[in-house]
Design goal:
The chain has 396 residues and is mainly alpha-helical. Helices cover 67% and strands 0% of the residues. The protein is built from 20 helices and no strands. The N terminus and C terminus are likely disordered.
């Protein structure tokens, strides 16, 4: 009788791929991050230096900030091991622990989703929340419930966002000089104007090509859909991530945004593309929604996970007061990853029988409720409904 391992993700069948392992997966993940790091440095450092708006040392700052995030996570994990594990008082044992804990990754991702002028002490706070609270207190690599980088990001977003804004926010020195931005990123602009209008949402930043290339204001690593697509292809080909998870997540946001646009009176394809290319959706879909420890393990669970992520992202963007929505959505779904995984594993194992159809029906019904609520309660649809009622009232 065959025996199956039931330990922590990520899993890989070494008998089929003898040259693979968790270390190789994480190496490939870091390679996937490399183009994003380079673009973040180019957009916020090198290009601004060439424009003549900053000096040489300031040009290096975006790269130093990103690498500092990784270093902070590494140092914090090292200190945690030294305090909690006597064996780690030996440098060799400590380095071995750190090499299998992949401590750099949470800090690198955290730095990439933060604005350029985030104060260093805020980055330290976020790294502590993500690395110590979100990862090590749960037992370390493979045991954490929440994505560590996202937990640090959420902690910063809900407590210190005002500090970041006061320090300079997301705009680099070249972007500050562009009056058309009016001090707002594309998604904060959408939250402010509450109007689906190409002239108000896209034209201040150029056109959709600018959104795709990433020459718009935003956090360090989130703006370029093109660069993130390159990373996505690499990670999917190397089988570091499941190719369909980001596709379903982004596709859900695209379809729901298109539906909201149609209901509001604009059926153009530009608005769903704007929704996909704005904010951290692409980055979150590729680098966070695919994290193996905090997401479902079986394919059906991953599909439902991605669908719920898309619905929650639209809900938080259009209904809540938090314009981004991606980080909050993933953190919320991290909570439900295990029960969702268990429910869909039963469905996948037993097939579509009476008891499993009930589970499919419940999951589908919950998904539809979130989708319908998000669409109806979106600011544009709500405003259109009020205007329609007012018009009927005048006719009567």
């Amino acid at each position: 009788m065959a025996r199956f391992a039931g330990g922590k993700a990520p899993f890989l069948r070494l008998s089929d791929q003898p040259n693979q392992g968790t270390g190789i997966i994480m190496r490939d993940f870091l390679i996937g991050l490399f183009p994003v790091i380079l673009f973040a440095w180019y957009k916020n450092g090198i290009k601004v230096y060439v424009d003549g708006n900053i000096n040489f040392l300031e040009m290096l700052y975006p790269l130093v900030f990103i690498l500092l995030g990784g270093l902070l996570s590494l140092i914090m994990e090292g200190l945690f091991f030294i305090i909690t594990d006597k064996d780690c008082h030996n440098l060799k044992n400590l380095m071995l622990k750190l090499s299998t804990s992949f401590a750099l990754i949470p800090g690198l991702i955290l730095a990439l989703v933060l604005p350029l002028y985030t104060p260093v002490w805020v980055l330290i706070f976020g790294a502590f929340m993500g690395t110590i609270v979100g990862k090590m207190l749960f037992g370390g690599f493979g045991h954490n419930i929440f994505n560590p980088a996202l937990l640090g990001y959420i902690a910063i977003g809900f407590t210190l966002s005002g500090v970041i804004t006061a320090a300079g926010g997301v705009f680099n020195a070249s972007e500050v000089l562009v009056d058309a931005y009016a001090g707002a990123t594309p998604l904060t602009n959408l939250a402010a104007v509450k109007d689906i209008s190409y002239a108000k949402l896209v034209e201040p930043y150029g056109n959709l090509w600018n959104f795709f290339l990433g020459t718009i204001p935003g956090a360090l690593g989130e703006t370029s859909a093109l660069v993130i697509l390159v990373s996505y292809v690499w990670l999917a080909v190397r089988k570091v991530i499941k190719w369909f998870t980001p596709l379903i997540y982004v596709g859900t946001v695209f379809v729901l945004s298109w539906l909201i646009g149609i209901i509001s009176g604009d059926s153009g394809i530009w608005f769903p593309l704007y929704s996909v290319f704005s904010g951290g959706l692409m980055f979150g879909a590729v680098f966070m929604a695919t994290e193996p420890v905090t997401t479902p393990r079986n394919p059906l669970g991953k599909i439902f996970f991605a669908l719920f992520l898309g619905a929650f992202t639209v809900l938080f963007r259009f209904v809540g007061n938090y314009p981004e929505g991606v980080g909050t959505s993933i953190i919320v779904m991290n909570i439900f990853a295990l029960p969702l995984d268990q429910a869909t594993a039963v469905i996948r194992a037993r097939g579509l029988k009476k008891e499993t159809l009930v589970k499919v029906g419940v999951l589908t019904a919950l998904l539809l409720v979130i989708i319908v609520y998000a669409v109806i309660k979106s600011g544009t649809v709500y405003g259109m409904f009020i205007n329609m009622v007012a018009g009927i009232g005048r006719l009567m």
